[in-house]
Design brief:
Chain lengths: ~400, ~400
């Protein structure tokens, strides 16, 4: 079986013309935008040209189906509000080229998917979460984006294309190629990452409520300053988590809202995001306990009200060993010494699909670790290396699930 | 000379009907709102009834003038967006009653003022700053409020009332009665604060710039997280300022903007407010050095870009000794053992007027120290006590400037 690297790169560059940002190779193609829908219709045409049976499902996931039992390869073609050209798109176009080359070679059977709203305009990996049963369509329809538009209203823009959901029993397994979105492969000068597991995530909002006061007339010792509570919490948390975590654990306070947020007013309230990720559920739980206990202690010491929002989370997911092994063997043949096994610190559609069938992921490097930005990029040699590794692995991948 | 406490309280309650919030005694009467202009026209009528010569100047400061050289008494009648009924209004209505009673008694000559935009819809104590020469009208006209309306456009709503600016040489001195806006008098069960000086203020924005990154794929040791820099700065600053300040010094981080402000993104940039106040210019300077040095050290240690905005500031202002002494003597006669000398931690119109003539301030208690809120209040007994102290002091106050 011969993949066509030139055809693959040409499709990949063509895809970034939908929603081109005008800055480098960046794209603006959020889920259900006109650029996203146009890109999906163009991808559907490419799938038809390759002889695949094209199907849009009720949430806008795009499928290019082979007859009978097949290996599913893909990712997503929606982007962040300011996104790169490869995040998601790479996995979809690589699936297209592999399905096309496999059909030209007379097998094995490969189907292709572009999931919808992986980037979470409405939720987290919304399209694959609904398809895999992790999120009900009824619940999803009431999710809203940052402007208040509901998922139900947004997916209506693709209603004229929609057919039924695709039966997961058609597929023997799922493989997703994605950019790493981290620095490890690029720093090591390696081309391929074989993913061992996708980390789990916990996410909530924490609120400290003190007393709003005049910043001129309220002496320091009488203040109950919500920002000071946040700062003390952060300092104590960093100290205490060190005893619980591994070097691969991460935690982030990325959003902070002070009320009322004025120079001359001691802030009476702060609402902030607390997110943490780890490869093991038990450790995620231990981190949660440290976070809740530390917040309670700070609130108690500083005379603050404390509340936690509902905690959202996804469990860590191990990749299927036979599929992992097939990719690792191929990587060793195609790029000896230039690949490694590694964890995925980001969520992917494979997290959801793994609930239904054996699933695996492969990474290619992100230059300087940059993603979710117009500057996101990968060397063409590495893109082609990724294509060649999966082409080499294809017989074993297709055979593993049968 | 006999002041009429009942008439004074009636006027004070009548004034809060302009822009009444419907919550307690609260008012919504920001500068140049229709409620603010209507309140000023009502005050102008009361001044005319008292036999004063009424004048609005080009920025909407309202004057009730006595013939010849006079003592100026007043404050402001605009309010915060969610304000109390006494902040500013008390000083204006007290000036009105004192001028009225003094005219009835045949002297001394008292004029009244209600400055415009003390609450800083456009600047800081805007109306008195322009009148006193601290802010040029040309510069002020380009200041904008939070909705983008310019000061020039806003003051046009009072253009039909406007005459010339009033000559400061008409006045022998200025006295402002104001609520304390802090907890000290209320906690001590005292009725009168004789202000020794108004603290100085410094205010700027500080920016730390690190690297925006994916919160799942960026390991902790490779992050340059702007929120972490802010937290480390705050912790170090609190430690170091303790060696420089007095118990009356205050510093506040009241506004924090993280970029991009998402749960899943390591924040690459933070812009935050840094404000500090103290009664001595030298100490304000020492605090500034600690703030700048600490920020530079944190930026250096954590690999952050650092920038400071222009620093705004007002110097501490000492109240005029003869006027202070006149108020203190009267307080000792009217409320023996129930008054104290104290600093003002808040800015007031007196800060500006002190550049032109001897100026003094007197505080009455704020219940629970609350101000800039609908709940702001003061016991009627304390309001009347304040009126009686200034009435008692009036001959000495009027004599002091001649």
């Amino acid at each position: 079986m011969n993949v066509d690297g030139e055809r693959f790169l040409k499709d990949l560059h063509q895809l970034r013309s939908f929603g081109a940002s005008g800055t480098g190779k960046g794209v603006v193609r959020p889920a259900y935008s006109s650029a996203d829908i146009a890109a999906r219709e163009w991808l559907a045409d490419r799938m038809r040209d390759a002889g695949l049976d094209v199907r849009f499902d009720p949430v806008g996931n795009l499928w290019g189906l082979s007859e009978g039992k097949s290996l599913l390869i893909g990712s997503h073609s929606d982007s962040q509000p300011e996104g790169g050209w490869l995040d998601g798109a790479l996995g979809v176009v690589m699936g297209l080229e592999l399905a096309r080359a496999a059909r030209e070679a007379g097998g094995p059977a490969v189907s292709v998917v572009s999931f919808q709203d992986e980037e979470g305009r409405f939720g987290v990996t919304t399209g694959s979460a609904i398809w895999s049963g992790g999120l009900s369509l009824e619940h999803a329809d009431h999710l809203t984006d940052s402007t208040g538009t509901s998922f139900g209203a947004a997916r209506a823009a693709m209603a004229h294309l929609a057919q039924d959901f695709v039966d997961p029993a058609r597929f023997s397994g799922f493989v997703e190629c994605h950019i790493e979105q981290g620095p490890w492969l690029d720093e090591a000068g390696q081309s391929i990452g074989v993913v061992t597991d996708i980390v789990g995530i916990r996410d909530m909002r924490i609120t400290f409520e003190g007393a709003q006061n005049h910043a001129g007339t309220t002496p320091m010792h009488l203040r109950r300053d919500a920002f000071q509570a946040l700062s003390a919490f952060n300092t104590a948390l960093n100290d205490r988590l060190r005893n619980v975590v591994t070097p691969a654990s991460v935690w982030t306070i990325g959003h902070v809202h002070l009320h009322p947020g004025a120079h001359s007013i001691v802030p009476g309230k702060v609402v902030f995001s607390m997110q943490w990720r780890d490869g093991e559920s038990v450790r995620l739980g231990r981190m949660e306990k440290v976070i809740r206990d530390t917040a309670a202690e700070i609130a108690d010491t500083m005379g603050m009200g404390l509340s936690f929002s509902e905690m959202l989370g996804l469990e860590p997911v191990a990749m299927a060993r036979p599929l992992r092994a097939a990719i690792a063997d191929a990587a060793q043949q195609v790029a000896p010494g230039k690949w490694r096994e590694m964890q995925s610190g980001a969520l992917h559609d494979a997290t959801n699909v793994a609930a239904l069938m054996p699933a695996a992921m492969m990474f290619v490097p992100s230059i300087n670790g940059i993603s979710h930005a117009f500057e996101e990029d990968t060397d063409e040699d590495d893109l082609l290396c990724g294509l060649n590794v999966l082409a080499q692995a294809l017989p074993a991948l297709a055979g593993a699930g049968h």
